Amino acid sequence: xxxxxxxxxxxxxxxxxxxxxxxxxxxxxxxxxxxxxxxxxxxxxxxxxxxxxxxxxxxxxxxxxxxxxxxxxxxxxxxxxxxxxxxxxxxxxxxxxxxxxxxxxxxxxxxxxxxxxxxxxxxxxxxxxxxxxxxxxxxxxxxxxxxxxxxxxxxxxxxxxxxxxxxxxxxxxxxxxxxxxxxxxxxxxxxxxxxxxxxxxxxxxxxxxxxxxxxxxxxxxxxxxxxxxxxxxxxxxxxxxxxxxxxxxxxxxxxxxxxxxxxxxxxxxxxxxxxxxxxxxxxxxxxxxxxxxxxxxxxxxxxxxxxxxxxxxxxxxxxxxxxxxxxxxxxxxxxxxxxxxxxxxxxxxxxxxxxxxxxxxxxxxxxxxxxxxxxxxxxxxxxxxxxxxxxxxxxxxxxxxxxxxxxxxxxxxxxxxxxxxxxxxxxxxxxxxx
Length: 434
Ligand code: UDX
Prior knowledge:
Blueprint: E1 2-6, H1 10-21, E2 25-29, H2 33-40, H3 51-60, E3 64-67, H4 70-76, E4 79-82, H5 97-109, E5 114-118, H6 126-137, E6 144-148, H7 158-163, E7 167-171, H8 175-184, E8 191-195, H9 197-228, H10 232-240, H11 261-274, H12 280-304, E9 311-315, H13 330-340, E10 344-348, H14 353-359, E11 365-366, H15 370-374, E12 379-382, H16 387-390, H17 394-400, E13 405-408, H18 415-420, E14 424-426
Parallel strand pairs: 1-2, 1-4, 2-3, 4-5, 5-6, 7-8, 9-10, 9-12, 10-11, 12-13, 13-14
C-alpha cells in the first residue's frame, strides 16, 4: 500500500521504516531539512537498535523515501499518518500546533480521498478538531476519513514493539477507514481492537498513565521495604505472580523519565481537569516520581556525609538502556544537584554522551569507560541499567575507586554479591540484603 508518515521523530521514523519493511511504499516527511538530508543518506538522527539498518535496507529497495514536502507526501499516498511532536506546554497541556498545521496542509493538497491517521499521542477529541480543520481548508468536494491508531512502542525496542505488538488499537468511524487499516496491519499477527476514535485516543493516555502509576506504586512500596528490612525485589515478584497484577513495570528505581510518561501523565491530568475531573491519583503519581530522585540524593548524602569536593562517578545518563535519549532523564537532575553542592562529577554512558554534552555544559568529566569513571571516585552511582554495566570487572572497579561505594538506582546488582566483593552497596528498597 502507499503510505505517508508526517514527522520523522521516534514514532514517525519507526512507523515509516517498519511499514516499508512490511512491503509498503512509504514516504516519510519532516520539515527539518537537515534531518531529511541525513535520512536520504541512510543516517538515522536517533539511536534506536536496528533502525538505521531498516532505513538503509528500505531506501535501497525503494520502499522508503524521505521528503520535506507535505504536498508531495499528501499527493503520493492514500493513507497518511500524522506523527509530529506534541510537546508539553508550560501548564502541562499538549501543544497541538504541529498537528493543526499538518492537518491544514494535508487538506490544501489532497487530490482525492485520504485517510488521515493520528499516530502521535493526542488528547481525546483531537480527531474531531483534525476533521474540522480539514473541512475548513479542503479544496472542493473531496472525501476523507480521520482515524486514531496510537503507538505503544518503547524506545530501545521500538522495532520489535512495532512488529510484535501486544495489540493494535484502531479508532475509526467509517467502513473504508477500517478496511484500509486492517489491510495495512494484516501482516502483523496480533489482537486488533477496533473502536471509536475518542476511545482510541483515551486508550493511549490511560495506558501510559496506568503504567506510570504502577511504577510509582512500587517505588512507594520500596520505601516501606527500606524502613522494615523487606526486599522490594521479593515483594514485586510476589505481587507480579498474580496474573491480575502482572510482573512487568514493577521495577523500583529512581523513577520514570523519557519523552512519554512525564508528558502523558501531565497531559492526562489536564485533559481530566478540562472535563471537570480532578485526577488527584495522577498528581500523587507525579509527586512520588519526583520524590524518588530526592530519596536517591539523600542516600548519597547519607553515605558520603559531605558532598563538596567529593568525586562522584555516574554510570548511565539515558533515561533507560538502549537509547541515547536523555529527555526527562533522572540523571540530569541528580547530576545538577550534586554539582551545585560542589561535587566533582565523572560520567559515562554507552550512547547518550553526545546528547548529554549539549545540555550538561557545567564542567563535567565525560569518560571513555566505566573504569575511567571509577578512577578516584568516592562513590559510583548506577543510573541507567545498561547491560554493559551488569558485566563490569568489579575487582578492577574496587581498586580504582577511592572508596568502594556503589549506590544503585536501578537495583541492577545483587546486594549479597556486592557485599562479598567488598563494596558498601545501597540499592532501592533492598535493605534486607544490603
Ligand atoms: C513508554 C511506553 O512503554 C510506551 O508504550 C509508550 O508508547 C511510550 O512511553 P518509553 O518511554 O520508551 O515507552 O519507555 P518505558 O520502557 O516504558 O520506560 C519508561 C520509564 O519508566 C523509564 O524511565 C524506565 O526506566 C521507567 N521504568 C519502567 C521503571 O522505573 N520501572 C519499571 O518497572 C519500568
